TrEMBL record:
The keyword Signal does not apply. Keywords: Ligase. SUPFAM superfamilies: CoaB-like. The lineage of its organism: Eukaryota, Fungi, Dikarya, Ascomycota, Pezizomycotina. This is Phosphopantothenate--cysteine ligase cab2. PANTHER family: CORNICHON-RELATED.
Amino acid sequence: MVQQNGTSEQSTEPDYFQTNPEPPTLDRQITLARSFIEQHAGQDRRVALVTSGGTTVPLENQTVRFIDNFSAGTRGATSAEYFLEAGYAVLFLHRQFSLLPYSRHYSHSTNCFLDFMTHNDAGAVVVESEYQQQMAQVLSRYRKVKQDNTLLLLPFTTVNEYLWLLRGLAMQMQPLGANGLFYLAAAVSDFFVPAERMVEHKIQSSEDFQEDLTNGSGARAPAAHMEGKRLVIDLDPVPKFLKMLVDGWAPRSMIVSFKLETDPSLLAKKARYALEKYSHHLVIGNLLNTRKWEVLFVSADGGERWIRVPAGRRSVPTWIHDGAQMGEPAIEIESWIVPEVAEEHTKMIEKRLSKQASY
Ligand code: 9Z3
């Protein structure tokens, strides 16, 4: 059972980063990001931080159980490829083992990657002829990105790792000024277990092994505990990181967030609400069931606009043989989303430049 925290206690910055531990890999990841950003800043290249995949909320410090957020990483990995094609360098902040740019074409499909291979007459392993053309294209784009060092992969698993990384990377991106872009496609937990309320060991389901977790020290009660045979989970709200990003960590970058809903009647309202609450540049709304072929752009100038891939051109999983992929090739909606975002980014940079010139 998940209970919403009815108390008025809220984790806010700087409290969050003072009371939740820095991940051990953070320093290394920030060091890698720093030299990546320096390289591209030196070449006056735009840098996009693309977040992708879902964050987890561990219930135990030595984690056996955790709560997860839905996302395969398709939106982020696909968008990253289009940003690279548009000339950006990309910091790809992704859930470990979710989809990655380029390899996404071959992983997580119903085919095992070995199904793309065969033996030639000489016995060497080669790509099956039907996949040759598409794989050659993906390979040459991937090679170019490797050669130019324009893609840096940075994995996270928990919401805590995500928040520390997002803050650290945003600080590193500050010198880029308006050339920095945040494209927040990751599905981030709204609720979490703060470090001070996390139990160390696996929660015991058997009543015969349950510990008495109440303590008289005044510390807050653990977020997860057994009540007889029932597991009771009482989560804290995750601090409003978008507010911290817009106001403090990345005040000069363009910031685009995604809003995920399941109820169509709420999408536009919630997207507009987020935009007004955080005052960033663009919210892209999407519904769980239609996210692959329609999205709603809600922008700061008051505009609301749907982008829709027509029925015959939708990209559907190959195991759905509904004829949608017959005829014209399928369109990935990110191939329409990303150029629009890049164009808005150009306008923002030009505005900044003309403002500077008039001083
Ligand atoms: C999204 O809405 C993404 O488009 C999806 C992509 C997670 C739906 P997939 O990876 O899915 O292609 O399978 N991301 C944002 C989700 C989110 O947590 N947004 C927060 C919210 O809705 C605001 S940052 O409140």
